[in-house]
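Teaching note: in complex prediction, the entire set of molecules is handled at once rather than each chain in isolation. The prompt given to students was simply: 'Predict the structure of this complex.' The entities are:
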Amino acid sequence: MVSIATGSLAVRREQARERWLQKINADVYVTVGMGTCGLAAGAGDTLAAIEAELAKRNLNAVVGKVGCVGMCSYEPMVELQAGGKPRVNYGQATARNVPEIFASYFDGAPLRKSVVVGEVAPTVIQTNGRALHSLSFVDPESKEKTAFHQKQLRIVLSNCGLIDPESIDDYLALDGYKALETVLTEMTPEEVIEEVTRSGLRGRGGGGFPTGVKWGFARKTPKWPKYVICNADEGDPGAFMDRSVLEGDPHSVIEGMIIAGYAIGAETGYIYCRAEYPLAIRRLEIALAQARELGLLGEDILGSGFGFNILIKEGAGAFVCGEETALMASIQGERGQPWPRPPYPAVSGLWGRPSNVNNVKSYAYTPRIIRLGAEWFKNLGTEGSPGTAVFALTGMVNRTGLVEVPMGITLREIIYDVGGGISLGKKFKAVQTGGPLGGCLPEAHLNTPVDFDSLRAAGAVMGSGGMIVADETTCMVEFAKYFMQFVCDESCGKCPPCRIGSTRMLEILERITAGEGELEDLDEIRRLATGMEKGSLCALGQLAPSPVISTLRHFEEEYRAHIEDRRCPAGKCRALITYEIVADLCTGCMVCMRNCPSNAISGEKRQPHVIDPELCERCGLCMEVCKFDAIIVW
Amino acid sequence: MDVTLTINGQKVTVPDGSTILEAARYAGISIPTLCHHPDLTNVGACRMCVVSVERARGLQTACTTPVFEGMVVDTESEDARETRKFVLEMLLTDHPNDCMVCEVNGDCELQDLVYDYGVAWPEHRGVRHSYEADPDPNPFIFIDRNKCILCSRCIRACDEIQNRDVWNFAYRGFKTKLVAGADQFLLDARCESCGQCVAYCPVGALYDKMSLGAGRVSQLTKVRTTCSYCGVGCNFDLNVRDGVIVRVTSAHDAPVNGMSLCVKGRYGYDYVHHPDRLTRPLVRAKWLGAEQVEEQVANGNWQIATVAEKYVQPPASGPQPSISDGTFIQTDWDTALDVVARKFTEVKKAHGGDAFAVFASAKCTNEENYLFNKFTRQVLGTNNIDHCARL
Ligand SMILES: Cc1cc2nc3c(=O)[nH]c(=O)nc-3n(C[C@H](O)[C@H](O)[C@H](O)COP(=O)(O)O)c2cc1C
Ligand code: SF4
Ligand code: SF4
Ligand code: SF4
Ligand code: FES
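The expected output is the structure of the full assembly:
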């Protein structure tokens, strides 16, 4: 039986769908990627330039602001479609390039090839007669999917870059809130939990705990009120998957949270979003207001008798507040420090009440799972890790960005096929997954499938989705030191193993990179790591040694070179390197001499120059400015 | 409902909801702790109480982990012992090595555990904190943050027991620092100088300022007493050295107040040895009779007291001042009470009981006030009695 309320939603959806079709089939349809990434690259100016260009050309266009499509190295991004012409996506569409892009699209004028990303080929995933719309791009000539998209499968990111995140109608038009309707009108809470459990969805916040099982625990605890909490703290350096979802498709997270609320019996939800994400917070606020207006939040949702509300809590800038118990302490207005489990949040969480904490993506998957079915989801990815994995691919790869791939794809495929290999023609050295609490893997492990269990078995972790690629010029000791420094800054200070252990570990790494290391230090690192792993209260302290231990496992010889030979093989650690001018190559142009900040270089005009190692501060500026590659570091 | 578990091979039955620590203590098995205190909520911060639990992932903190039916706990597993040692060693790497001159030497939970676990002093080249000692002008609370192990017992004591919520941690990681208010002075951060935080500090980071250098536990004798300031009847221990009270410490088994004391009870003991303190009654000469006064002063039983500025004091030596009607004579208690009784009887005879009005004190115990009420109504014969607390 369909209630009046769901009936009126259906009417609204029909109108929304019509408007959506009108919009995408408009005479001229332009979209601009307006995520934080796009805006930072100048999308605001691009939009102004587009409007000016449209006015100049006297074009009556629909201009859509969309979220991020994930191709960070191409930002800002613009899509153009007019008449019967194919829809083309342009990268590096800065305000200055806009007239050129228009001239190319409308007048066939030549355009630098690098600007064209591809033709937009909207993908529709069909299953059980239901559809999931998504974006992908094909090469204009070969009509093949572009390399960046070939191996991707966008499910949780399907709406990102496609819809206007500030329009609930766009979301409704693409079947948004349909899952909620189904849940409220056709399913019992137990059935919802059963369906999510059957899908095999594992939490995307890092731990990979089965989401349905977690909901079941919270449902079972006979205490009220209960809370649904969305973890949008995303503090890993270089990670921005959750931000993109919140900025590009906020309603999917909200819909997932309402479904979770219905499943566990909660009436209140909190979104704990880091304050450094002002755009995400603004879009969430807009989306929440829209959902409230349509009666999708509030009392008696869609006439079901079930009521639910969502509040936003801004974080205060601590990585540890992403840890679920610290997060709840923070919501309670306390210092963001973890508390021990058990009792688990499902038994005693926020304000001592049963609470369910999930990651942004975990919630965003659930409406899709309800809509397209548990079977569909279970058959994606691997048996133990169904579905897709979202990574923020950064570091020394050609195409950095946000990628969503089926679980089980190898690291090699992500780095070489999606990421386009190592930038500047350098050689691959290691890839770090899981951020500062993850581990690094060397070349030999590149065929490791990317899923929760395989990564863990290989000594890295899935984490929440940071993937940093290091090339041959990276010093792995320094790499490890960077993460340990991060942990020292972000440790909450509550327990001694993490608070003091991380400081002692950092001190050792500092000594090694300063050329003052001793071989016993390596054993000391291992001993500290064991103490931290076993003794720390929360996963921050327990996992903090992983980057150090994994680099030590795979690159011990590099540590030993620092200690035994007082040498940094990657040429990075200042205390251990020497800059030298190769006399045969030096033309005596004097550029290095003029640039050296410590006056360490001497030499006559047109005579080979020399560097005084005593005065040299090893800043490497000379090497950068020498046009004749006459300066080497060793 | 009861739960039965096994700790170190021993079966223990405790109420559901107990922690491993409670169950172990109930069974007489000791587990080391630092941040735990039975009066305070458990936070699992210090990691000293870690134990191995069968089938659990990693070590569990005994102070926070609830027991369950069939749980199997090993409190002395190698992992647990090694981890405790590691924790102690880490704490020592950021602790001053000055037990020799530390106020709480011999009365320090950290020192005892370091001894029990045989942890050697860790020399290292890294950083140690060097905070200024005694940075706070509060006259009662001494702070040495270099000794602080960040267990948060003071924070919880002030918050949960005293309800003042003065302390908290500021900053993060190794820089985490115990601060009052927003890193202010105590008295600017709502501190009422009750000293609860000092009483709960397991180490020498917080100490009673009045007692600095006055003696350490092995030099002191504890004498249990009841506070003389008010009718609540708090118990505490006077710490006495060579007949002099040098410190007041809380007594956890005090029936009325436990560890709690107010600023007067904990720090107001200096009057005991004050030269201005009245220890014997003073009676005007005219109520005693000139003859008796002369005789008793001459044989040294009574003394002539002078009114020196604010206080009344017998002169130490030298020529005795002359005696007038109004001169205060320091007598014995029986004499003074006889005078009072005589005068009361006279008044009652002449004017009746209602000529009296009686005002009782909050400093008296309930028993004393009860007796005072009986005395007023039955002996003096009036209902004119009131109490200072009824304002
Ligand atoms: C130091 C630390 C930081 C974390 N940060 C995040 C985070 O930013 N986002 C997140 O979803 N989970 C984070 N987690 C994991 C959460 O504690 C929790 O496991 C997760 O939110 C559960 O959601 P899921 O079941 O959907 O994965 C962090 C954990 C630790 C120990
Ligand atoms: S492990 Fe680190 S972050 Fe976690 S509670 Fe301990 S000190 Fe805080
Ligand atoms: S003296 Fe009392 S009020 Fe002041 S900080 Fe300590 S416990 Fe709090
Ligand atoms: S001052 Fe004492 S009680 Fe307070 S945190 Fe430090 S060690 Fe613990
Ligand atoms: S006593 Fe249990 S963690 Fe401190």
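Point out the following to students. The pocket of flavin mononucleotide (ligand 1) is lined by residues A 203-207, 209, 211, 214, 231, 233-235, 319-320, 322-324, 357-359, 362, 464, 538-540 (CB under 6 Å). Chain A has 25 helices and 21 strands.
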